[in-house]
DNA sequence: GTGATCTGTCATGGATTTGTCATAAACTAT
DNA sequence: ATAGTTTATGACAAATCCATGACAGATCAC
């Protein structure tokens, strides 16, 4: 890679910042680290200041979520890819906040360096998940994050809350197989549901996408789970 | 998985070793503990001697970091997962060393047993030879862990779940003969299957690999079991 | 509350995968 | 070479997995 991707780390713990710097620099990233949102905000006003933001959940002057939302709200940073660092303790209902703040991915501590780098590369490769109109777009599909609606070929289609959540998850986590349990974990706070429930919801989602031909992207991987591909299968 | 993961603890304080042993054995790990690097080095020369190394920072004969680097430098242990135990006191330039030594994770004392176990499992789960693309590669073969597919010469091929598991096992445990029973144990939780079942699956796997010539790496060791070699037999 | 909609559970059937068995082939030791 | 053992392989049965319809419980709007 000729031009290194610049990553901004915002975390109040010096040890974590150092650790991340030491992990990311050898992987070919340029790293800037700051301890609070105020400084970060200033830095980010510059055009193309950084390529990606690694943002801790807990920060001294403002919660990471709040900061992310602020960034999304101003045009200059509306499309900045953000990966959130969360502690294990954080519960599912907080994950809801992640969607609202439109972060691109999140990773729970403790995480492996390898995994972090993989996710950073994924996010950088695919670009921000949502555009500045507050949409996630993929081929003929779009989710309007503000209205929680589904658009197929710009036609608004009714979608139920659960199906919206599933589709949101798939659109933001493409090209990887997820087990039913993983899907349940990501969709419900207290997931003691039957795994077959996922089958049923997948079917419903497919019925919804069928008329547009987009159902073909949602594939079953026998013995493993389901996957939303970026490339239509033949 | 019914075969227990083997963990080597290297720490000079007997009290810590005992504590760790008492913590890890009930969690289903097999524990070996040693007091210094010299002994550990000897032990680790054996292929697949252990699955993970828990290494103290301060050791009598050599610093943990130095030892880790030495392990990384020789092929047999280059991929051995290592978790470092560090005292809270030293923070900064210490962490630098962790990346240099390509340590997989580190944990600062005092730590909770639960956290330690969680981290061990995290490190173990992500597997040994997976490269940054989420693949396990060997010669013309690769497993795409994200898609759960087999790639032969970069051509994605569908593979059934059991065969995937068997191939995954072989690719991550090369150059060692496994008995049919060991293979069964690694592939099914409650394996009361006939041992001949393995023969059958081996045949199926060979049929799959045959066209690419990769079947030659999967050899029968008469009277013992099967082995996936790194060097093609002649 | 009541009705409408949404979501989870269950049962069924079909397709695929996997295990078992029988026999052929290969190998080993004498 | 021959008997005895071990492995390969084809045929088939059993088990597994998934799609799907029916339905009931949960949730939401009014």
Explain what the structure shows.
Two copies of one chain form a homodimer. By secondary structure, chain A is of the alpha/beta class. Chain A has eight helices and twelve strands. Chain A is globular and about 50 Å long. The longest helix of chain A has 14 residues. In chain A, helix 6 packs across helix 8. In chain A, about 30% of the residues are buried. The two termini of chain A are about 30 Å apart. The first copy, chain A, folds into two domains: about 130 residues, 3-Layer(aba) Sandwich (Rossmann fold); about 100 residues, Winged helix-like DNA-binding domain superfamily/Winged helix DNA-binding domain (Arc Repressor Mutant, subunit A, Orthogonal Bundle). Chain A has a five-stranded parallel sheet with strand order 2-1-3-4-5, with helices on both faces. A five-stranded antiparallel sheet of chain A has the order 6-7-8-9-10, covered by helices on one side.
The mean pLDDT of chain A is 85
Biggest interface, chains and residue tallies: A-B, 25 and 25 residues
* Topology, number of strands of chain A: 12
In total, how many domains does the architecture of chain A comprise? Answer: 2
Under the CATH scheme, which architecture of the largest domain in chain A would be assigned?
A: 3-Layer(aba) Sandwich
Count of runs of 4 or more consecutive helical residues of chain A: 8
Poorly predicted segments of chain A: none
End-to-end gap of chain A = 32 Å
Instruction: Give the overall silhouette of chain A.
Output: globular
Q: Could you say which structural class the secondary elements and strand pairing of chain A correspond to?
A: alpha/beta
User: Percent helix among the residues of chain A?
Assistant: 25-40%
**Superfamily (CATH H level) name of the largest domain in chain A:** Response regulator
Largest sheet of chain A: 5 strands, parallel
How is the largest sheet of chain A built, in terms of strand order?
2-1-3-4-5
- Oligomeric form of this entry? homodimer
* Percent strand of chain A: 15-25%
């Amino acid at each position: 890679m000729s031009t290194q991707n610049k990553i901004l780390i915002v975390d109040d713990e010096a040890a974590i910042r150092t650790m991340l710097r030491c992990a990311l620099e050898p992987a070919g990233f340029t790293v800037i680290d700051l301890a609070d949102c105020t400084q970060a905000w200033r830095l980010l006003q510059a055009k193309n200041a950084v390529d990606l933001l690694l943002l801790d959940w807990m920060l001294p002057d403002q919660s990471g979520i709040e900061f992310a939302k602020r960034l999304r709200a101003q045009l200059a940073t509306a499309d900045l890819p953000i990966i959130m660092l969360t502690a294990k303790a954080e519960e599912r209902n907080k994950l809801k906040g992640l969607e609202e703040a439109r972060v691109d991915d999140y990773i729970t501590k403790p995480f492996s360096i390898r995994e972090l780098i993989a996710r950073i590369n994924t996010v950088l490769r695919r670009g921000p998940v949502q555009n500045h109109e507050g949409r996630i777009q993929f081929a003929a599909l779009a989710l309007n994050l503000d209205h929680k609606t589904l658009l197929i070929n710009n036609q608004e289609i009714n979608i139920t809350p659960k199906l919206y959540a599933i589709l949101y998850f798939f659109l933001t986590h493409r090209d990887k197989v997820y087990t039913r349990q993983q899907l349940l974990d990501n969709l419900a706070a207290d997931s003691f549901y039957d795994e077959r429930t996922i089958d049923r919801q997948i079917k419903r989602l497919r019925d919804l996408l069928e008329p547009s031909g987009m159902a073909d992207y949602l594939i079953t991987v026998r013995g493993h789970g389901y996957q939303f591909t970026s490339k239509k299968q033949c």
